[in-house]
Amino acid sequence: MQGPDFVTLQTFVSVVESGTLSRAAERLETTAGAVSRRIAALEQRLGLRLLNRTTRRLSLTEAGERYYEDVVSVLRALEEAEDRATHLSDAPRGNLRVAAPLSFGVKTLAPLLPGFSARYPSLRVSIDLDDRLVDILESAADLALRIGPLEDSTLVARRIRDYRRVVCAAPAYLARRGEPRAPADLAGHDCLHYSNIALKEEWSFGAGEGLVQTVEVRGPLCANNGDLLRKVAVAGMGVCALPEFIAADDLAAGRLQAILTGFEAPALTLWALWPSRRFVPAKVRVFVDYLAACLA
User: Fold this and answer.
1) CB of 259 within 8 A of CB of 167?
2) Better-scored residue on pLDDT, 122 or 251
3) Model confidence at 196, in pLDDT bands (50, 70, 90)?
4) Beta-bridge partners for 100
5) Residue 247 class from Cβ within 10 Å (0-12 exposed, 13-18 middle, 19+ buried)?
6) pLDDT band at 32; cut points 50, 70, 90
7) For position 230, what pLDDT does the model report?
8) Where are the alpha helices (DSSP H) in the chain?
């Protein structure tokens, strides 16, 4: 009896990891109807019910759980075999899906992509920009780029580089409210909080090797996107602490002014993350190596 085809197995895994037919269809760049037909054909062929269907979500049956584990192992082995062959030919091909923060993607990543595409023309790159902390497994991303502290996980993490964090405000705001001379002075200022970097509204400062203090800040706005905070800071709304790649142009033009320069804010680390496995896919390896070389 002929076994299920590769596309059907990929579809089954995508449905399980996405939780819905529509999200699986989006990942596979097909329609929900096509996904539903593949799953129905697979269940009919096996003579087993693999999924419990509700109006909101799909869940695995007991037989589906065992089948899913086996299929994931098979697909991973096939992918690693293809990656090994690709590695030997030094010509990665296929699709590479990268999840990255919005501002970083537009300002820093975008200028690097033409050079990467020219170097690896057989590799199709799909960039998903989102300031949420994307679940790599659920989103089917091969690689995620994140800036800031990492949560404990089974993902492999590679440090790419550190970005200086600049505390700054518009000259008009400083003229109106006065310039903070020490971190404790921020308690009397409107601080614009970057909610993706830390859940608590606290900013830490150091001088030299020693940590000086952590200051609880308050303000009229918090957001998970640095460009939004940069724009409202330029408009005089308050003080913000931004990665240097976001604030650099406004600092150079005088639209923002760096403050508390004698108290260093902890750097923000750019990380590349991918699912843990024995063999790093060639497409992931070459992209991370390229990014590290360009941003070194």
Assistant:
1) yes
2) 251
3) low
4) 129
5) buried
6) confident
7) 96
8) 6-18, 21-28, 32-46, 62-89, 102-104, 113-119, 136-139, 171-177, 226-234, 244-253, 282-295
Tell me how far apart the terminal alpha carbons of the chain are, to the nearest angstrom.
54
pLDDT over 70, % of the chain: 87
pLDDT of residue 198: 56
Q: What is the pTM of this model?
A: 0.69
Q: Is the pLDDT of residue 137 over 70?
A: no
Per-residue CA distances from 183 to 10, 178, 187, 247, 267 (Å): 53, 13, 8, 20, 16
In sequence order, the 6+-apart residues with CB closer than 8 A to the CB of 77 are none
DSSP string, 82-145: HHHHHHHHT---EEEEEEE-HHHIIIIIGGGHHHHHHH-TTEEEEEEE-SS---HHHHT-SEEE
Q: In the 8-state DSSP scheme, what is residue 254?
A: T
- Rounded CA-CA distance 243/223 in Å is 14
Indicate the range of 87-91, 144-148, 218-222 predicted with least confidence.
87-91
Spatial CA neighbour of 190 closest among 220, 169, 233: 220
In sequence order, which residues have a C-beta less than 8 Å from that of residue 145 and are 6 or more positions away?
98, 99, 100, 101, 104, 105, 109, 160, 270, 271, 272, 273, 291
- Cβ partners under 8 Å of residue 244, min gap 6: 163, 164, 165, 166
